[in-house]
């Protein structure tokens, strides 16, 4: 697959198709069978540069200078502008919801690199009109820390994507406003003869769900993710997320937070004891680089499965009680790449007879949400969905057509191991077309159209609606930088 002559888009977004450079590099990793993780990729230029070099690209930051072989500190600018039209509310865009029917957004992204030290921020300044005038300012991305590609330590707000899914993951996707988090991660292949054991990755994050909530204000959020590549074609992931603490809540039991051997609190009607909300998942990815192995026209075939639980229970194993998953959910998907074409399909089911996904905890009723948008799969609680897409990538641009369906059940409450639901279900059918063109002097122009048809909206009989959305975006220059001057400095 040809790599586009452009750099990263100005709005950080780990959704595979949205970011053309990440998408193309990940395609190369799959086709070449390179031992790098695809289920959890750290945002930022250092990680992208590491992955680009693994597929044979020696990247430098345009405009950055070096002195005696060492890159000088550089300031990077990533400008962008977007025009959003219509009443459709998109998924997987970092919680962004246009304030009006006509919305103009400016994204003046900037980043500072000084060795391994990184500071970056992408404010989104938007003006929405019709009806009325609605200014909006938010940070799509803001992070400070140390990043060397294979390891990083820092704090900030980042859109993340944790798992193998293309249209959402069970625990964490770019669907809601990202919380402020401090994170540490690292990945490596063991040295010497131990390299036959494969490659390992671990990440730990602690943050705060900072958006206003109807239950507990500013609860803490714990994120753990462990990944293993026994061979380049097989990736295994184990992830966990926990909500804990918050304003006017008792002190956290640190031992239970790290290892929930007593996952449920009983006999506490006044909610005086510390408690936490748990989610965990196990995912598996299998990639077959058929073109590399057998010289077939099919570049690769990939399948993935994510198995998760919305809560923890204790399960007896002999004489020992161990935490186990409850409220099981599943996500399945497959992808085939043939030349410039990529065919993708994905199915998710997040329904259970007692443990509800994302919401409904006895203390944290809003659960794993920010502004009522779930951090995980965009289908949300009590849902079943499928999505299919076909994409075409060339050296001048890209096209993608996609469509899907979502079914949601309205839950009233869970009582005595029974779930009481509303008679009216909500059904959504959606289609979309996206096109991008790489500008001759760098940059990208994109246009997309989406159409949604919803029946029984909010579980109300007869509430049937159509929603339309058009997005035009322009990033006039993907990336350029200014470096501090030195007498003997020269361009790389």
Overview of the structural elements:
Helix content is 7%, strand content 50%. With 492 residues, the protein is mainly β. The strands form four sheets. It has an 18-stranded antiparallel beta barrel. A three-stranded antiparallel β-sheet has the order 2-1-28, with no helix packed on it. The radius of gyration is 23 Å and the shape is globular. 40% of the residues are buried.
List strands and helices in order, with pairings.
Blueprint: H1 20-32, H2 45-54, E1 65-67, E2 70-71, E3 74-78, E4 81-86, E5 102-106, E6 109-114, E7 117-129, E8 133-147, E9 151-157, E10 180-189, E11 199-208, E12 220-231, E13 234-244, H3 254-258, E14 276-288, H4 290-294, E15 298-317, E16 320-338, E17 341-350, E18 369-370, E19 373-374, E20 383-393, E21 397-408, E22 411-415, E23 418-421, E24 426-438, E25 444-455, E26 465-475, E27 480-483, E28 490-491
Antiparallel strand pairs: 1-2, 1-28, 3-6, 3-27, 4-5, 4-26, 5-7, 6-7, 7-8, 8-9, 9-10, 10-11, 11-12, 12-13, 13-14, 14-15, 15-16, 16-17, 17-20, 18-19, 20-21, 21-24, 22-23, 24-25, 25-26
């Amino acid at each position: 697959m040809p790599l586009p002559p452009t750099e990263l888009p100005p709005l950080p977004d780990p959704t595979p198709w949205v970011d053309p450079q990440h998408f193309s590099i990940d395609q190369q990793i799959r086709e070449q069978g390179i031992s790098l993780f695809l289920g959890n990729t750290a945002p930022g230029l250092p990680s992208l540069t590491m992955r680009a070099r693994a597929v044979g690209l020696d990247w430098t930051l345009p405009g950055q200078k070096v002195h005696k072989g060492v890159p000088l500190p550089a300031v990077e600018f990533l400008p962008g502008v977007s025009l959003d039209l219509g009443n459709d509310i998109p998924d997987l865009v970092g919680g962004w919801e246009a304030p009006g029917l006509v919305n103009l957004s400016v994204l003046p992204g900037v980043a500072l690199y000084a060795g391994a030290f990184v500071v970056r921020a992408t404010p989104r300044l938007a003006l929405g009109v019709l009806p009325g005038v609605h200014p909006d300012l938010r940070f799509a991305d803001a992070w400070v820390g140390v990043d060397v590609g294979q390891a990083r330590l820092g704090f900030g707000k980042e859109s993340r994507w944790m798992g193998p899914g293309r249209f959402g993951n069970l625990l964490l996707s770019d669907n809601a406003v990202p919380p402020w988090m401090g994170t540490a991660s690292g990945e490596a292949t063991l040295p010497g003869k131990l390299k036959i054991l494969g490659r390992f990755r671990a990440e730990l994050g602690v943050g705060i769900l900072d958006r206003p909530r109807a239950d507990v204000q500013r609860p803490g959020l714990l994120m753990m993710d462990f990944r293993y590549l026994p061979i380049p074609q097989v990736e295994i992931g184990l992830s966990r997320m926990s909500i804990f603490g918050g304003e006017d809540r008792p002190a956290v039991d640190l031992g239970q937070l790290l290892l929930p051997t007593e996952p449920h609190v009983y006999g506490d009607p006044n909610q005086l004891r510390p408690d936490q909300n748990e989610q965990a998942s196990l995912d598996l990815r299998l990639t077959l680089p058929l073109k590399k192995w057998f010289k077939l026209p099919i570049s690769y075939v990939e399948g993935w499965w994510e198995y998760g639980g919305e809560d923890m229970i204790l399960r007896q194993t002999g004489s020992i009680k161990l935490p186990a998953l409850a409220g099981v959910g599943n996500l399945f998907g497959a992808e085939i790449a043939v030349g410039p074409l990529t065919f993708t399909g994905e199915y998710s089911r997040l329904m259970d007879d007692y443990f509800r996904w994302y919401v409904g905890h006895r203390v944290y009723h809003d659960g794993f949400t920010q502004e009522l948008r779930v951090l995980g799969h965009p289908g949300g609680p009590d849902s079943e969905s499928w999505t299919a897409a076909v994409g075409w990538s060339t050296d001048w641009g890209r096209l993608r057509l996609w469509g899907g369906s979502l079914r949601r059940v309205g839950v009233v409450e869970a009582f005595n191991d029974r779930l009481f639901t509303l008679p009216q279900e909500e059904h959504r059918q959606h289609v979309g077309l996206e096109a991008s063109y790489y500008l001759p002097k760098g940059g990208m122009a994109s246009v997309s159209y989406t159409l949604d048809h919803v029946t029984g909206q909010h579980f109300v009989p007869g509430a049937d609606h159509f929603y339309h959305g058009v997005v035009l975006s322009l990033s006039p220059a993907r990336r350029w930088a200014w470096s501090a001057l030195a007498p003997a400095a020269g361009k790389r």
